[in-house]
C-alpha cells in the first residue's frame, strides 16, 4: 500500500470531553462557545472530522454524556458524518468511591461500581459502540490502608463480570496509570498489571496505553511492541506530558516519541482499522481554544504516522542484520527528519480537503458562530 493510501485510511478518535470545559486541580478557566450538551460536542467533533478527514468517531463519557435516547444521539452523529466511539466509564466522581470503586472493601460499593460498568455496556448496545474503556482511580494513599492482594481479587471479579456482559463484537479496554489520584498504591498502575488481567479475561479484553500514564523516561514504544506481539494492544489514549498526566496536545511535548510509537505500529501492520487498534486522543484544553487544539493534535498524530510510513524497512532490515548500528539508526532518523508537510498538504487536496485545516477552521467562522449561538444553559465540563 502506498504511503498516501495508508494515511487516507488512518482513523483517529476524538474525546467528547476535549470540547468541554476542563482545568487543573486549581481552576477551570471557562471558555466561550463551549458545548452545553453531548449533541453540541458532536457538532464540534464533526467539524474536526470535516476539516481533517481522519477523525470520524467521537468517544463518549458516562455520565458526562448521558442522554435520554442514545439511538437518537447516534443518528444525530451519523447525520453529521461521524459515529459514536468508545464508551468511557466513570467510577471516580461519586462520594461512595472515596476509598475505591471496584476494589472498594465494601461489597455494596463494588456492586454499585460494577452496575455502572454494566450500564455502560447497555449504552454501547444502543450507540453501536464497540469499545468499553475502563480507567479506575482506585488505590491507596497509606501503607496498611487496605489489603493490596484482596483488592486485586476484587478487581479481577469486577472485570470478569463486566467482560461476561459484552456482546460478541464488543471489547473491554483496560487502561493503567502510574499514580494519581492515589499516591501509595494504584490498583492498575502499569501495563503489566493490565496485561495480566486481560490475559486471564480472554480475547475481548485488551490493554489501553495512555501516553501520559508512565514514569518519566519509560520506553513506551517497547510496551507498544510487546503488547502488539502478544495481540493485547487494544487502543491508545494519545496526549503529551512533561511531568505526569498533563493531558496536553498529542505530539506537542515529544513528537519523536510519537514517531517511535507509530513506527512500531507500522512495523506490525497495525495502522489499518481492521487491525483492531483504536487510536484515541485523551486530552484537555485548559488554556488554548479547544477545537483548533483537537485539530492540531489529529494533525500531529498524522505527521508522526507519515514519517513512520516513510521508514525504509528494507534498508533498516539490512542494516540490522549486518549489525550496522549507526546505519540502522540513520534509516530511522532519515524518516523522522523528513518534512512531511508538503506530502500531507497534497494528500488533503487529493481528499478534497483544505491543505491547512487549522487555517481553514479559523476562516470558517465556526469559532465566532458558537460564541454567538451557545448562550444560556450550562457549559459542559468534567463535573469535578
Ligand atoms: C484518566 O486519567 C484517564 O486518562 C482516562 O482515560 C479517563 O477515563 C479519561 O480522561 C476520561 O475520564
Ligand atoms: Zn486516558
TrEMBL record:
Q: Which InterPro entries match?
A: L-rhamnose_isomerase (IPR050337), Rhamnose_iso-rel (IPR013457), Xyl_isomerase-like_sf (IPR036237)
Picking any one GO molecular function of the record gives:
L-rhamnose isomerase activity
Q: Which keywords belong to this entry?
A: Isomerase, Manganese, Metal-binding
The record's section on SUPFAM superfamilies has: Xylose isomerase-like
Name residues in a coiled coil.
none
One GO BP annotation here? L-lyxose metabolic process
Q: Does the keyword Metal-binding apply?
A: yes
User: What is the protein's name according to its record?
Assistant: L-rhamnose isomerase / sugar isomerase
Organism the protein comes from: Lentzea jiangxiensis
Lineage, top ranks: Bacteria, Bacillati, Actinomycetota, Actinomycetes, Pseudonocardiales
Amino acid at each position: 500500500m502506498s504511503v498516501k493510501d495508508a494515511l487516507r485510511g488512518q482513523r483517529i478518535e476524538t474525546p467528547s470531553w476535549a470540547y468541554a470545559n476542563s482545568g487543573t486541580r486549581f481552576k477551570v478557566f471557562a471558555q466561550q462557545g463551549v458545548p452545553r450538551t453531548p449533541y453540541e460536542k458532536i457538532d464540534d467533533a464533526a467539524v474536526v472530522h470535516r476539516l481533517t478527514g481522519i477523525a470520524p468517531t467521537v468517544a463518549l463519557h458516562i455520565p458526562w454524556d448521558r442522554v435520554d435516547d442514545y439511538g437518537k444521539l447516534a443518528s444525530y452523529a451519523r447525520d453529521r458524518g461521524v459515529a459514536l466511539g468508545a464508551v468511557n466509564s466513570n467510577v471516580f466522581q461519586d462520594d461512595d468511591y472515596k476509598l475505591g470503586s471496584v476494589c472498594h472493601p465494601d461489597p455494596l460499593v463494588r456492586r454499585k461500581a460494577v452496575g455502572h460498568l454494566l450500564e455502560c455496556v447497555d449504552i454501547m448496545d444502543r450507540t453501536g459502540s464497540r469499545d468499553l474503556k475502563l480507567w479506575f482511580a482506585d488505590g491507596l494513599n497509606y501503607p496498611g490502608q487496605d489489603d493490596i492482594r484482596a483488592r486485586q481479587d476484587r478487581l479481577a471479579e469486577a472485570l470478569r463480570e463486566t467482560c461476561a456482559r459484552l456482546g460478541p463484537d464488543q471489547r473491554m479496554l483496560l487502561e493503567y496509570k502510574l499514580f494519581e489520584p492515589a499516591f501509595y498504591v494504584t490498583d492498575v498502575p502499569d501495563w503489566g498489571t493490565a496485561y495480566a488481567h486481560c490475559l486471564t479475561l480472554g480475547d475481548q479484553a485488551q490493554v489501553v496505553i495512555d501516553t501520559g500514564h508512565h514514569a518519566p523516561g519509560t520506553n513506551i514504544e517497547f510496551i507498544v511492541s510487546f503488547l502488539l506481539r502478544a495481540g493485547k494492544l487494544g487502543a491508545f489514549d494519545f496526549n503529551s506530558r512533561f511531568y505526569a498526566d498533563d493531558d496536553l496536545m498529542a505530539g506537542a511535548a515529544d513528537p519523536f516519541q510519537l514517531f517511535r510509537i507509530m513506527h512500531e505500529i507500522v512495523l506490525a501492520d497495525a495502522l489499518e482499522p481492521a487491525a483492531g487498534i483504536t487510536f484515541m486522543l485523551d486530552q484537555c484544553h485548559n488554556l488554548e481554544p479547544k477545537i483548533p487544539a483537537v485539530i492540531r493534535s489529529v494533525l500531529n498524530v498524522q505527521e508522526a504516522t507519515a514519517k513512520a510510513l516513510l521508514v525504509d524497512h528494507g534498508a533498516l532490515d539490512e542494516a540490522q542484520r549486518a549489525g550496522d548500528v549507526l546505519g540502522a539508526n540513520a534509516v530511522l532518523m532519515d524518516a523522522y527528519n523528513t518534512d512531511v508537510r508538503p506530502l500531507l498538504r497534497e494528500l488533503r487536496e487529493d481528499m478534497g480537503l483544505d491543505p491547512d485545516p487549522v487555517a481553514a477552521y479559523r476562516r470558517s467562522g465556526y469559532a465566532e458562530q458558537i460564541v454567538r449561538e451557545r448562550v444560556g444553559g450550562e457549559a459542559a465540563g468534567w463535573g469535578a
